[in-house]
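Marked as duplicate of an earlier ticket. Keeping the data here for the record.
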Amino acid sequence: MKPSIPKGTRDFLPEQAAKRIYIFNTLKSVFESHGFLPVETPAMEKLETLTGKYGEEGDRLIFKILNRGDKLTKALNQENTSQKELAAEALRYDLTVPFARMVVQYQNDITFPFKRYQIQPVWRADRPQKGRYREFFQCDVDVIGSKSLNNEVELVQIMSTGFKALGLPDVTIKINNRKILLSMAKYVDAENSFVDFTVALDKIDKIGEEGVLKELVEKGFNESQSEKLKALIALKANAINYYAELKALMAISNIDLTGFNELDEVFAKTKLSGIENIEFDATLARGLNYYTGAIIEVTHPDFNSSICGGGRYDDLTGVFGLKDMSGVGVSFGADRIYDLLEDKGLYPDNIGSAAKVLFMNFGDKEVERCMEAAADLRANGISCEIYPDNAKMKKQFKYAEDKNIPYIVFIGETELESSLIKVKDQASGEQEELSVDEFIVQLNRN
């Protein structure tokens, strides 16, 4: 049998895993600086918890878990078997719906507004391709229990700060509002087919205007609706200030401006925060049924997919029995961010090195002294390791080089007699004799 893994999944060797942890820790630091707390949910949820929350296309991508034992045998042997009889559980599709379920289940143990972050894997039965995996991590940050638009502003601040901390200041934060999409649907007389309208519109960057119109005609759009949609798309292509002109067009058409008014406030407050890389995108829909207000997505000019996204959801906890619990959140796509940082070479130097110091092995007597010195280094917060075997120096040097260990310590007969250690700086090639205490001071200074 040739070892392999399922398509759309990945193994991560030590250096790769360290890079992922770097992303998680960087974002975690930003989240916690805004007062968010960590939570975790199970890898699997009840199927009924997940279905019906992501739209028809999203539901098709849920990884269902077959029932086991007698339940499955009975279901397979009977006619007209229901889906629930075959599968009652599923792997989580995202972190937001499980979070909403958690909020309702533990509502008496939570202080509202509840600010949480969550860094865990999710699964989607998608077609694997570059930047799109079937198993991947999300880094979610949400606040629930408040309708204030200040929460949207704070999330924009978190996204801007987070990507700057990762070395990606040139991202674009795109924003729309579900209510603006509804206004546009009313303008083209598509209010009764709103989901079809938004799902198709969200694909305009992938399939173009003609592709969107073709898909909507197949869904029942008539010529009048198509012409109105063409006018909206043309307005976007030709208007100098598309947002203002779209708002004016809706006002003239006596269509509700609530979505525009909400975005006006978000734009004004983010500008006061010094954030300039935010822009309106009328075609941004993200295809999820649970968004009710702001819709947010982050892109980078060197990556062909979004690397962060989210929005406002007013009714998500309602399906679990808790009404009037508005929330808003965004999800950082850790795997896509990983690929982008890798392509651009933005990881810190020596990120794959667990140890800062390697003690060479010259034999049992010398290793005993190495163990004493290593204990002193670790007690002072310095990571180190001792080569386990009395192997040839060439082999030990190669080990240090392969693991990007910056310092090598030699304790031989001379060092045993002098109580000093010989230290080699791998970067400069320089060697010097020090006491263990002097070496510790030097490392902590660096």
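See parent ticket for discussion. The mean pLDDT is 90.
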